[in-house]
Every structure is written in C-alpha cells, then in structure tokens.
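Final report, section 2: Outcomes. Of the targets proposed, Integron is the one most frequently requested by collaborating groups, and we therefore present its record in full.
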Amino acid sequence: MRLPLFALLLFLVACAPRASVGNEDDDMLNVTSEPMKPGTRPVQIGEGGPAFAACATVGRVVNISATGETYLPVRAAPFLEADEVSRLPNDTRLLVCTRSIDQRWQGVVVPPADRPGTDCGVSAPVASRQPYSGPCVSGWVASAFVRAVAN
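The predicted structure is given below as tokens.
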C-alpha cells in the first residue's frame, strides 16, 4: 500500500505546475538601456618608488583635431563610459603618473592653465604608491593623445 501511494504522490509532484518563489523577473539580471558607469578610479602616484618623483613624466596633449574634437576629455576612470571631470585643449601640459593595464589610458595630474607653474605636489618622491589628493585636476586621458616631452 505504501509503494502505490508514494508513486502517486511522486507522479502528482512531477505533473504539478512549477511553483516559483517570488517573481520570475527577479531571477533575471537587471537589464537597462543605460550604459553601466564604471565609477571612479583615482590616479595613483609614486609608482616609481621613493627614489623618483611621484609623477615622473611630463606630457602634452597632441592631435586632438584629427578626431574632430576641440578638447581631450579627462575622465574619472580609464573607460569611455566614465564621467568627464575636465577638458583639455591641444598643447596642454600635464604630468603623467600611471597607466592602465592595457596602456590605452594614462593617469594624469593637470596644473591650472592660468598658472602652469603651480606645484601640484607630484614633483617630489612619495614613500609609497597612493591615490593623488593634491590641488590640481587629476584623471584619465586616452594615451593616443599624449606625447612625452622633456622637462
């Protein structure tokens, strides 16, 4: 008697409609039409160690007119989708502090255009690698538009 009862219960469970806990839409990924924002990734200074300047390379913005733009966007993270924090015209002087892993982006510190000699706090060595927190604009620019120049 137990075996037929067990078989009947098993049959009923197998044929029953699938019950869901919660809404099935909750199980799916949150899909939106807006692109994801990568957030902020601070520019790191001191990557060369305590024997070198916190940002060891000086660069200039070059060739932005070739793309039809009149400025080079400075972004909060090394991604096209990152928020724009500033805009740099051609020939702007900047200090290169780091690079993204794929070398497509450079983490830079930019002295003010009206005071290009401003000490942004990156010409001296720092004890260890750390996020930049000085007075100048910092962010990420596309490597294709930066050329290293002599100090």
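The longest strand covers residues 93-99.
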